[in-house]
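Below is one such record:
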Amino acid sequence: MKSVRSDWATALLVCRKCSKRLGGGFGPKGRTPLAKALRKELGVGKGRKGKFGVVEVKCLGVCPRGGVTIVDGANPGEWKIVPARHNIEEIVSALRLRG
């Protein structure tokens, strides 16, 4: 088995199904998906060379109304449900993420 190095401190798993149900739900106009808003706020580039990874996954099985489920890979025992239109800076602060 081959290994590939990554510079990620953690990976955030964002439920794509929840985001799709909201039709975005984040950003100034409420149309930006949570994963995209987090990437922009954290300054995460694509690929494995960024400081954090934001990965959209198919479905996490929680399916909250009016929110998106996320899992922080550094703390997999505690999943977060982020309500639509929640401030991105507050989300990042609650997850204790900063480069």
